[in-house]
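In practice, a research group might receive sequence data for several interacting partners and want a quick structural hypothesis before committing to experiments. The following worked case mirrors that situation: the sequences arrive first, and a predicted assembly follows.
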Amino acid sequence: MGRASVYVLVFAVSMLSALGLVMLASTSYFLDETSGEAYFTLRSQIIRLGIGVLAAGVMAFIAYPRLYRLRWKIFGVTVVALLLCYVPFFADEVNGAARWISLKRLGIGGPNLQPSELAKLAVAILLAGWFTRHEPLTREFKQGFLMPGCMVFVTVALIAGEVDLGSAALVGALGGGMMFVAGTRLLYLLPILGAGLGGLAWVVKFMPNRVERIFAFLDLEKYKEGLGMQQWRALIAFGSGGVEGVGLGNGRQKMLYLPEAHTDFIFPMVGEELGLYGTLFVVITFSLLIAAGMSIAHRAPDRFSRLLAFGITLTIALEALLNMGVTTALLPNKGLPLPFVSYGGSSLVFRMIGIGILINIYRQTPYERKKDLLEIRRRRMTAVSHGSL
Amino acid sequence: MNAPDSPTPDLNRWVPHRIAVMLALLLAAFGGVAFRLYGLQAVDHNVWARRGDGMLKQRVVLPAMRGVIRDSNGELLAHDKLVHEVWVNTQHLRDLNDVRTRLARIQKRPLSEVVNGMKPEDVISQYREHVTAVVTATLNETGEPVPADLAVQMADEKRIEFPLLKGLPTETADIWKARLKEGNVYAISLRASVRRFYPAEERLTHVLGYVNEKTVLEDEGPGGRKREKHIQIGREGVEAVLNTELTGTDGFQWIEKDRKGREITSFRGEGEEPRHGHEVTLTIDMNLQDTMEQVLEQAFMQYKPKRITSVLIEPKSGAVLAMASRPHIDRETMKGIIANPAVSAQYEPGSVFKVVAYTGALDRKVTGLGETINVDPSLKVFASQRIKDHVNGPVTVLNAFAQSSNRAAYLLALRVGDDKYLEYVRNFGFGQRSGIELTGEITGTVWPRKAWDGLTFSRMAMGHAVTVTPLQMTMAVGVIANGGNLMKPQLIKEVRDEKGNIVRQLKPEVVRQVCTPRTAELMRQAMVEVVQGQKGTGKQAGIEDIIVAGKTGTSQRRRDDGRGYEEGHYCVSFAGFAPADKPELCAIIVVDDPHGAPEELYGGKLAAPIFSQLMKQSLHTMAVAHAVQREISPLSNGGAQ
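A structural hypothesis for the assembly, expressed as tokens:
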């Protein structure tokens, strides 16, 4: 994609955000009717989008090497924030999961924060920094696998502990993906993958009760009134939409039948109201977004920015894929938002910050002078790895 | 991508390659999602759309009303009425999103304050307290008792919903609706259903019967869900026999609701109007029925019998005008005798049954009313058994009948011959169902010839060794009143569908001719003599200014288990018609096991006065009394041939 990648990126993000607002206007009408304030959610989402765009703009003009220097501080803040979720005073528990920090309790006011969204960005920054700092040792066991692996593991464990398995799995996959791209030996990575799959097989075989929850999605019809209800109704929404959709605003599942129709399950509503055209539009737009992000990573001027751009793009890609996989019942039901489309502040703002970082990396990539590329890249790399930039 | 190890690998050369690999994998995954979506939305669209319809579309039952039952004058006896139930949905009481907004509205606070400033448990418990207060206030307003465990039931998380009240009239339901709306209570809903009501109250219970009302789970169509349905099944009486005609067909309407339960009118589907049940008009005249119920009630109180039963018919059409028994069903508790004794209780008729022997003899012309026969005590029946009789020596056939001579009845039956006599018994309708549209009718017992022993014939001639139902006996006496024709008893005057078209109508039906009109006329004179004659046993059945014809009957009561007889217990009866020359009404009074002085326990002493009272009041009611002149027909033309 080269030079055009940033335009594709901005275009895709704009289209998805716009679709998100349109779908929110359509689905939350029924939601807000219950809460008494029409378009309350829509208004707050527009405000959050504004904050997100602003944050992206700011990040686009903050040179990314600053993130390299701040990587441990950012990670430290993330760990503290994740730990706060375990303190009942700060935590805002919803449906048995303490994923939010209530700023209100701190006397500051404002919306609740979801530290796991910060963690996705922080892990990307930390790992990118780690593999830049220890570049020559990437293929060693300790520096190339054990240490970064422990960082990822701590984050995953903290997120999983608040019972947010979707985000935990995502951070785990993000860490694995970044280590793979950074150059960690497959000899170390593959056993982890194998052990994960083996452990899953063991759980399936010896703890059938535990897995019923997880594998309800394989036989939704049986669980359609219980564990599989949300996904079953999501499938109904997709299916009833057909190719052309029932039309914007005519969706029936959103009439409070499909729980979380405006957040994690917005995609089925796109499917019901806008049909296959709508869902394929979303899939293609995400593909473009991912391709543009990867293109920026591909061309990024140094190791840190490459890995960071890759990590940010991978986060968005994995979130989108997991969300689509869950809503189409290809994966077990774990709550993850559809980036830029779902209602939700933390997710939107942190993904927007990520987009801002991608833009900044793009801005610092010398596309014009291809012959000087190698020279510049080499110089920057040296500077970054010595922390002097 | 697993590059061979080298001491100083150029990691940065690898990164773009590995990014490319990841991109390819991710795009492949997006392709997989696209393929899945194509399958769901393009290939299986119809399957999922149908499942969606099944989930969202509701089949609302438009209940059909069960048909009304009226008497011949149009008086309402039974009808369906809309009643309401109050249901509490505890699941809605726990719906945090909904409860928050309602609490904010009730407490007049901004929603954000309730959402952010209150614990979810507090929101729910405060709202539940509010709902409980509204319910308690409304219960007090409508005068219903407040359940002691109301608060506990409301907080029960195991249940989805429970019924608070049932059977409310529409006015009370309207109060509930208003209060619930004022109180911003959504979790309580009113459901309408139909309930059977009987304006006839405690009258005509055996004829009307009752309905079983119950709630069944009914399949609801594509979604495979079950829905509660209120059904009424007729049990006993007309309700049971005409259940098919009375039962309507529920209508339905496919609708869609949002989750708050309001219909989305733009999605309204197909439907069908309910077809209400047919309207049934009985031949019963409630004026006559009232009279009968009063007379029976009074007699029941006076003699405290096991049972007292009466049937009143119009002889020429066979239409049943009144039918009652004591004790009867208590509609409140459903206790008492549920089966209708007029068709399901058998008794030995005693002397009333002599009508058969005399009719046979006169019809076969083996005697005449004027013939003098010798009812000598020496008449032996079988193995030196003699027949007890209170009439001795020579007596005319007419007087023998009027005085209810046992020996004379047997002598005449003998003249008819056993096979012929049995044929007359059967022709009168005994030993078979009359076919009246009532439940539980029995045949009674008429032994076939080959089952007779030596005493059967003589005992049968005087109305023993044979059992009949009160209705059979009434119809048999009706043969005499009706010129020899046995009519089929009718109960249904007409049936109309909901548009008012007549579906069926009373058609008098002659079952068979039992005897010639001439014989019937002779028998009529004989039965008049029972009431009007000097020595008649049924003098007390007489009515001033009106000629009554009839026959008394007294029999020792058969034990309930059918083995032998009960000493000192009797079943007394009187059957007859009036006015004798132009019979308008034919009736029977059967008093089973009355209590009283021994000399009172005779049909002529006990049943005849009740009959007289019934007939007099009935005729008065029929406003025929004024048209009837006292006129005793001369007996001369009924002399022996």
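Before designing any experiment, note the following. The radius of gyration of chain A is 21 Å. Chain A has one domain: 2-385.
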